[in-house]
């Protein structure tokens, strides 16, 4: 069996055209190409934007195989490669001229009256009310009550997710070399009954963040992980922590986090 590369793309025409070209060029240099997940593959290539990249990780069940992205979307924070640089990428890959970045996953353990469910994400978990309603949440960090929250919800993000939804609500950008958890409020409300932080909280990587809805919200709480909504009945608690599981990203040899931040946001 030859060297195998798996390609996953969205259905946008530019992505499909890029997939066709990439397939041809990989075959020319001796690779076998699959469009379905193959555990024997040495590399997974996602063609699209950040959404497609995250979807690939979900579709392939958090693979141990390294991933690289070709950006045919908009922002493209995860995808490193431009379609016009496919030849350069293939040559660099063949020569081993790249770096591998390991990103730890966020684990959300949702406990309901029916049991527990574990959900993993690379960016963030959002706890919010359904139907865009205000929600009341109890926030504990390492078994210490930090606040009784009132507002639109809480975002619990990894360092990799600090440039996503977290950044949009005013959270801090965190270098991905720092393994931390960040908790950012969405439209917090301060009253006599609820005193909320208006800025984000940054915790060490071994912290346990617990979010539990007040009893009247146990059936009206949404958990959204990397943009995918999960509906649960009778939520008792959501425990969030950094998992031992990691995703491997292939990066160009000149990749540098703050250069990427400036390129994409400034």
From TrEMBL:
GO terms for biological process: NAD+ metabolic process; NADP+ biosynthetic process. It holds the Pfam family NAD_kinase_C. Keywords: ATP-binding, Cytoplasm, Kinase, NAD, NADP, Nucleotide-binding, Transferase. One of its GO terms (molecular function) is NAD binding. Its main location: cytoplasm. It catalyses: NAD(+) + ATP = ADP + NADP(+) + H(+). GO terms for cellular component: cytoplasm. It is found in: Cytoplasm. Its cofactor is a divalent metal cation. The active site is at 50 (proton acceptor). It is an enzyme of class 2 (transferase). NAD(+) binds at residues 50-51, 123-124, 133, 152, 160. Its EC number is 2.7.1.23. Belongs to the NAD kinase family. PANTHER family: NAD KINASE. This is NAD kinase. It comes from Terrisporobacter othiniensis. The lineage of its organism: Bacteria, Bacillati, Bacillota, Clostridia, Peptostreptococcales. The gene is nadK.
């Amino acid at each position: 069996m030859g060297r195998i590369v798996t390609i996953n793309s969205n259905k946008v025409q530019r992505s499909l055209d890029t997939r066709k070209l990439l397939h041809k060029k990989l075959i020319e240099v001796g690779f076998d190409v699959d469009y379905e997940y193959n555990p024997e593959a040495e590399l997974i290539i996602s063609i699209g934007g950040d959404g497609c990249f995250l979807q690939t990780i979900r579709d392939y069940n958090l693979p141990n195989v390294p991933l690289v992205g070709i950006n045919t979307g908009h922002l493209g924070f995860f995808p490193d490669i431009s379609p016009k640089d496919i030849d350069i990428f293939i040559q660099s890959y063949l020569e081993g001229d790249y770096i591998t970045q390991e990103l730890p996953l966020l684990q959300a353990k949702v406990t309901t009256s029916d049991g527990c469910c574990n959900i993993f994400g690379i960016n963030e978990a959002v706890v919010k009310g359904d139907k865009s309603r205000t929600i009341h949440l109890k926030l504990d960090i390492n078994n210490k009550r930090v606040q009784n929250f009132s507002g639109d919800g809480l975002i619990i993000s990894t360092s990799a997710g600090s440039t996503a939804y977290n950044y949009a609500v005013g959270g801090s950008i965190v270098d991905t070399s720092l393994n931390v958890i960040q908790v950012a409020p969405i439209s917090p409300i301060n009253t006599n009954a609820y005193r909320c932080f208006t800025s984000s909280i940054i915790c060490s990587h071994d912290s346990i963040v617990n979010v539990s809805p007040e009893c009247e919200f146990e059936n009206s709480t949404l958990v959204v992980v990397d943009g995918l909504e999960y509906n649960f009945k009778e939520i008792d608690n959501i425990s969030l922590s950094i998992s031992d599981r990691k995703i491997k990203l292939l990066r160009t040899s000149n990749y540098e986090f703050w250069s990427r931040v400036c390129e994409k946001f400034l």
